[in-house]
Amino acid sequence: MAEAEEFRIPIGPQHPALKEPESFSVALKGEKILGVDVRLGYNHRGIEKACEERTYIQDIYLVERICGICSHVHSTCFIQGVEEIAGLQVPKRALYIRSLVGELERVHSHLLWLGVAGHEIGFDTLLMYSWRDRETVMDILTVLTGNRVNYGINTLGGVRRDITPEQAKDALTGIDKLEERTKYYIELATHETTIINRLSGVGVLSKEEATRLGALGPTGRASGITQDVRKDDPYAAYAELDFKVISDNHNDVYGRTIVRMLELLESYKMIRQILNNLPAGPISVRAPRRIPAGEVLSRYEAPRGECVHYIKANGTDKPERVKFRAPTLANVQAVKYMLRDRYLADLPIVIAAIDPCFSCTDRMVEIDDLDSGERQVLDWGTLHRYSIDWYKKQGIDFAKMGARQK
Amino acid sequence: MKAEENIQKELENKFNYLIGKVRIQRVRRLWLEIDYDKFRTVFEFSINQLGFSLLCAITGLDDGEKLGLIYHLANPNGTVLNIKTSVPMNNPVVKTVTDLFPAAEVYEREMADLLGAKIEGLEPGFRYPLTDDWPTDQFPLRKSWKMPEEQKGAI
């Protein structure tokens, strides 16, 4: 048999599986991946520049829209930085509510991920089940904040909505139900051989490589890294909450699944602690419109890993400079490493396992001739004709086959 | 604040030009500012000897005559060391740190695209985050850059 040829396929930027654009240019030999180039930036909207031109209050709502899933992540990360510069003492009750919404958001994100992971490995029943269950947490978030996403709960100096005892009671009932379902998923993931065999040994990332490449969040923790900003650099109410940092030593997609499922149980534990022991008192303090000059680095443990905001204030009501670093950006290098020398068939789940998204080939093929360095772009029509000619050379003529069928 | 003071002391003991330059902002937050020619030495020392094994981000700043750079390093105990330095804006050449942190690639490309930094030693690759047809002399995060009239109100 002739040796497999080397070629490159572009995947993206349109992603029918998840609504996020990014583009992967995959170099292949046969079905083995030689290397991956990642093109990001399709979603760049100039939010950092836009923040410089808006007031801090306006910026809260703008940064909340950096991400649809991690909306509370960004607004909290931003606001706690601004509060630090302004020297505001945020009431305890507000900090607890921020952590509560943060953990509910993590639950919705991890359950969403579980469904996507199920879908990527052809286990759509899991997608249907987990997304149905996810509606429970979406309902809790809607009752507490008024929205399924983009909660608008944060404001400078505290939060905008209080929680009534009735709401807390309803939320706790929902959490009981979610915990029962999550335990079922853990049972499923640890006993169902189809899942174990499909995910084990896929997207391998050793602890050394994870450290070198700077892998964050569940991706890093599934490779034995025990870092979690909630524990190491506590913010909001986390210093007072009892929870474990989940890590695992499988170093693969299976490990990343286990980490996320066990993290859900820790989130339920924290949500119960908050709702049962919500400190009494006000939910916000009065904040100045002008923020004194200063700079801070604010960190937050998002569902996908550490989120970082740098904020520089200049004494006016608008920031001098803001810089956001979301976790996926840090995990891109790890993805490139995990895919090398692996099979193309594993690409969707490996990429999905850091929790961004993927899928779809462009209707165009770019061929790099590695020897001559020549580049050739084939459009859809040329490719179509090429395939017809190729089959003709093999003695197969589709035109004649069609005629025979008549 | 014991751990923070120890880090401060170790830096000052090793580099006498850092005496009085390491600022403890609060628990788990340290800042220091140095000239760019001394940056790499202090940066490597912080990583290899002080255990700051994670690069959280690199921030680029338009400081008028200078292009400000902040390397945000973190250690496993949650402490962040922010190393500030700068290069002249009329010749903003910055050496890559991807040999130490491969993940820095996107942060450096971002500084090149948005602030016009010239990153030395970065392997060829896709630009980030601006589009392929974005003019190569337009750097949106510079203070002098204003959004074109026809695009105002887009976001």
In short:
The complex is a heterodimer of chains A (406) and B (155). Chain A has helices spanning 47-52, 56-63, 71-86, 92-120, 124-145, 165-191, 193-199, 207-213, 217-221, 229-232, 253-276, 327-339, 347-353, 380-393, 398-405, and strands at 6-11, 23-29, 32-39, 154-155, 158-159, 294-302, 305-313, 319-325, 365-368, 375-378.
Explain this structure to me?
The complex is a heterodimer of chains A (406) and B (155). Chain A has 406 residues and is α+β, with helices and mostly antiparallel strands. Chain A folds into two domains: 6-41 and 335-405, no CATH class; 51-330, Cytochrome-c3 Hydrogenase, chain B, CATH 1.10.645.10. Chain A contains 15 helices and ten strands. In chain A, the strands form four sheets. A three-stranded antiparallel beta sheet of chain A has the order 1-2-3. Chain A is globular and about 80 Å long. The model of chain A is unreliable at 357-367 (pLDDT under 50). Chain B is an alpha/beta fold. Chain B has one domain (2-140): 2-Layer Sandwich (Beta Polymerase, domain 2). Helices cover 25% and strands 28% of the residues of chain B. Chain B contains three helices and seven strands. Chain B has a five-stranded mixed beta sheet, covered by helices on one side. In chain B, strands 6-7 form a two-stranded parallel ribbon. In chain B, a hairpin with a 2-residue loop joins strand 1 and strand 2 (29-33). The model of chain B has no long low-confidence stretch (mean pLDDT 94).
- CATH architectural arrangement of the largest domain in chain A: Orthogonal Bundle
Tally of contiguous helical segments of chain B: 3
Helix content of chain B: 10-25%
**CATH superfamily descriptor of chain B:** NADH:ubiquinone oxidoreductase Nqo5 subunit
Tell me the name of the CATH class of chain B: Alpha Beta
Strand coverage percent of chain B: 25-35%
- Please identify the oligomeric state: heterodimer
In angstroms, what is the radius of gyration of chain B? 17 Å
Radius of gyration of chain A (Å): 24 Å
- Label the structural class of chain B: alpha/beta
Please, how many helices of chain A? 15
The biggest sheet of chain A, with number of strands, parallel, antiparallel or mixed sense and barrel status, is:
3 strands, antiparallel
Tally of discrete structural domains of chain B: 1
What CATH calls the topology of chain B is Beta Polymerase, domain 2
What series of H and E elements makes up the topology of chain A? EEEHHHHHEEHHHHHHEEEHHEEHH
Number of domains of chain A: 2
Query: Order of strands across the widest beta sheet of chain B?
Result: 1-2-5-4-3
Q: Specify the CATH class of the largest domain in chain A.
A: Mainly Alpha
CATH homolog superfamily of the largest domain in chain A = Cytochrome-c3 Hydrogenase, chain B
End-to-end gap of chain A? 36 Å
CATH topology of the largest domain in chain A: Cytochrome-c3 Hydrogenase, chain B
